[in-house]
Q: What sequence folds into this?
């Protein structure tokens, strides 16, 4: 090893991040009527349950069928059941809406569940709150799905009045459809 | 030995090296030892695997932790070769799926891998298990093994505060937390033995701990009364265990050796002890305001006596014995909840 009086050689301690390749994404490119849309909620977040509930109504109003699943675990048998539900949902639907990323680990699992849908070659949009946007994109990139569609909602959602959450649901519904590739 | 990791020229002056480590984001904020080839090769030589062996893939960036790259970080932390296999065992443990490293490295919670070491090599490598074992005892093994694991998560896993890890407060253990159990003063089988390992095995157990939760008493000499208060203290209303799935996660309770002796006399069988703690680790549903109470009811957490138990099973309460002989204190290591403790035998070259 070459060493001078003013410097020494060491080894870099960092790893190259994985997942720089990006898996393909999918879009519906057709009208909503007659399609089946999946909604994944998380029992931790009441605000998201409310917003997802509003979107569920709107999707049905606009001619889609919906299937909702609620997740709530990261390990153990409950988590196995959750992930199985997501796989089954991905099989059954034409597209899915997956949320909510409004904490660190719940953002991670929102992205992982979104990726599970995308791996079934179905359009999906991951719903995260503003504070967790960078984290969501990081996770998506590191699991090889860097182009995953992510819709960013305001933060925080918790502690907002019901009327305000309903307004947010109304305001962001067109954007969800746009990201899924719904046409007129 | 041919090393594969990238060579970098850095200043020979320690202060300039420190500046460089901060600029490169290799550091936890504290000066490091230089990861020279000599230091790295000595660590690899003590490993049971070759340099290119993949120990694990570390989230959140899914960096590949080879023995060599782990050794680079261990060299920065000052790990001595004899202690290097403990670092490898800790990483193997925390990368088990049920430890939920992806969740725990990205959460807003303060949780971090807390290492608990059992086995005959505790003294040889300088694992702290007596006075001030959770901070201040300054055993080389405890300080460097814990820090090496933390540096691996930072440098290989890509943990960056506020970016890839969303921990709101972090905690002091994020610099590294590694303690031993004072097995010789425990009235019960060691943690490792209870988890199926032999008395001669060196074992690292990784607990996803949210912090150190202190408890103290000087008024009560009765073992059952004191354990009752410990159980109640661990069941504090905003514990993570009341947020998630009741069957997931473990709460570690560290007893000082004097209290352990007292508790051991009342509960010679550790299963009876944990059963008693589980039975009493509850709060009345009326303690919580309406919004929380509603959630707990919806999730079936309220029993027929209007009690909300902290954990579902007695094996989710994990007693260990360590610390000094001041007979006043216990420390809880509360759980993240969605994480199950993992243990790995330390494989050392003979």
A:
């Amino acid at each position: 090893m070459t060493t001078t009086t003013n410097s020494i050689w060491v080894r870099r301690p960092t790893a190259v991040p994985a997942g720089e390749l990006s898996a393909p994404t999918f879009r519906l490119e057709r009208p909503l009527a007659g399609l089946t849309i999946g909604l994944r909620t998380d029992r931790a977040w009441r605000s998201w349950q409310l917003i997802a509930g509003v979107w569920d109504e709107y999707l049905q109003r606009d001619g889609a069928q919906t299937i909702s699943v609620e997740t709530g675990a990261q390990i153990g048998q409950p988590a196995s059941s959750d992930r199985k539900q997501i796989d089954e949902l991905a099989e059954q639907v034409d597209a899915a809406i997956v949320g909510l990323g409004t904490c660190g680990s719940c953002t991670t699992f929102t992205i992982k569940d979104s990726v599970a849908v995308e791996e079934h070659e179905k359009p999906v949009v991951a719903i995260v709150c503003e504070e967790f946007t960078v984290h969501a994109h990081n996770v998506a990139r590191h699991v090889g799905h860097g182009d995953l569609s992510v819709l960013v909602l305001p933060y925080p959602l918790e502690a907002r009045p019901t009327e305000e959450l309903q307004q947010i649901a109304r305001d962001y519904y067109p954007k969800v459809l746009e990201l899924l590739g719904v046409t007129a | 030995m041919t090393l594969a990791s990238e060579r970098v020229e850095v200043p020979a002056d320690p202060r300039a090296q420190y500046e460089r480590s901060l600029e490169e984001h290799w550091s936890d904020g504290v000066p490091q030892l230089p990861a020279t080839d000599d230091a790295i090769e000595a660590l690899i030589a003590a490993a049971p695997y070759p340099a290119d062996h993949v120990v694990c893939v570390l989230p959140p960036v899914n960096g590949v932790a080879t023995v060599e790259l782990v050794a680079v970080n261990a060299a920065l932390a000052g790990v001595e070769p004899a202690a290097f296999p403990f670092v490898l065992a800790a990483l193997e443990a925390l990368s088990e799926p049920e430890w939920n490293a992806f969740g725990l490295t990205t959460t807003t919670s303060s949780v971090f891998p807390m290492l608990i070491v059992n086995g005959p090599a505790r003294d040889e490598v300088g694992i702290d298990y007596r006075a001030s074992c959770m901070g201040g005892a300054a055993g080389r093994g405890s300080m460097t093994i814990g820090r090496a694991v933390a540096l691996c998560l930072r440098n290989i896993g890509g943990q960056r505060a506020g970016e890839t890890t969303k921990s709101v407060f972090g905690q002091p253990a994020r610099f590294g937390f590694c303690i031993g159990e004072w097995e010789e003063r425990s009235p019960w089988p060691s943690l490792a033995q209870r988890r199926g390992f032999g008395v001669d095995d060196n074992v690292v157990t990784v607990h996803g701990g949210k912090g150190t939760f202190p408890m103290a008493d000087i008024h009560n000499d009765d073992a059952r009364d004191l354990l009752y208060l410990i159980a109640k203290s661990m069941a504090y209303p905003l514990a993570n265990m009341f947020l998630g799935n009741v069957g997931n996660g473990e709460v570690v309770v560290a007893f000082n050796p004097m209290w352990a002796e007292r508790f051991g006399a009342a509960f010679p069988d550790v299963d009876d002890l944990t059963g008693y703690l589980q039975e009493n680790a509850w709060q009345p549903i009326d303690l919580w305001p309406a919004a929380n109470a509603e959630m707990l009811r919806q999730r079936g957490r309220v029993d027929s006596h209007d009690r909300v138990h902290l954990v579902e099973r007695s094996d989710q309460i994990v007693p260990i014995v360590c610390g000094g002989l001041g007979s006043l204190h216990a420390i809880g290591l509360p759980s993240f909840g969605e994480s199950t403790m993992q243990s790995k035998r330390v494989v050392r070259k003979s």
Observations:
- The interface with chain B takes residues 1, 3-19, 43-44, 72-79, 103-105, 107-109, 112, 131-132, 134-135, 138-139, 142-143 of chain A (CB under 8 Å).
